[in-house]
Hints:
- With 389 residues, the protein is of the alpha+beta class.
- It is 29% helix and 19% strand.
- The chain has helices at residues 2-9, 31-41, 50-58, 91-94, 123-137, 152-155, 187-199, 213-216, 226-237, 281-293, 337-340, 359-366, 381-386; strands at residues 13-15, 20-22, 141-142, 149-151, 219-221, 245-254, 266-277, 300-307, 310-320, 325-335, 349-357.
- The strands form three sheets. A seven-stranded mixed sheet has the order 3-6-7-11-10-9-8, with helices on both faces.
- The longest helix has 15 residues, at 123-137.
- It starts with a helix and ends with a helix.
Amino acid sequence: RQIISKLKLNGWVEIGKTSLTRIDGVVATDSDRDLLQAMKNNPKIEDYDEKKFKELKNRKLVKIANITSYKVTKGVDFNEEVIQRESEMTVDLLKNDEYKNKIFKKFNVLANGPETDGGHLHPLLKVRTLFREIFFEMGFEEMPTSQYVESSFWNFDALFQPQQHPARDAHDTFFLEEPEICNELPKEYMERVKNTHEKGGYGSLGYDYQWSEDEAKKNLLRTHTTAVSSKMLYKLAQQEKFEPKKYFSIDRVFRNETLDATHLAEFHQVEGVVADKNIGLSNLIGMFKVFFAKIGIKKLKFKPAYNPYTEPSLEIFGYHPLLKKFVEIGNSGVFRPEMLRPMGLPEDVNVLGWGLSLERPTMIYYGIDNIRELFGHKADMTKTKVNRV
Length: 389
């Protein structure tokens, strides 16, 4: 039926009721055959009528095929022989200028190297770096804190902390057996500290007890980096002319703590000290708000507290989104005259001091609810690789 329709469409025959009659004088030309031959010689679709091509395709006489062709020509480095190219410059090639007669492989200096599977920084180190940058932005100088072992004098006595204070007990502090005591302490300053403890002064009655030099010389693992701050303030007081200073440190401290979700026996303390004239508690609170806002902790609370060497004193609390409560992240206050005046600092100079935990702000920032998952054998190495700071 399709063939008969094609004959009639081309005007080659007349169709009767029971027969086909060829029309005289009409020359039958197979245009489809000619078109197919042309397509064979020139297979570019765009050179032919779209409607005609579609018809041939529907009749399954043609189909679309992608043809990829290549042209090979001689390049500038063409050579009939295989030349061994050097991949690197060696000492042997440099000798006697042999490299001048060699051909070297091309290097893509912009190509990415293979990804390394190690070398990821711990979240604590990243937050420590962030804290250091913030302190530097705020104009602080970093204190030297590489000495983990301190004498009880710099760790406690210089801070006007009495020798019978519970924090100085072995249940709270790690004392050394070897070497058990330190050898050198500034004698004149030590005598002034002794008198302040025993008899008071600078508006204080003291503690009214027999101060012991042997107790002050006992070596221990520092319980806070304030031991370093006391040394730096004493050094500052020895200058001929007072100069305002802002100090900070971030390093390890050691306490005989009961281990739980928020306490470790070894942890990092962020210490800050500002010495200047006409400063007080309002300056301290303002500094905290600026500092913690830079690391994303904007919900802060302050609670009055007691410290032997600061008055007034404040505990600092930051909101933990996972625990859904405020957790203590530090302690602060204005250093007492009984600590500063024996050092030799002028009477109109005040010193603001604070100690912050590095672990707890890190826990808040990363949403960790157990400190042992951050620091210790339970730490998740996957989190270390993908942490976002």
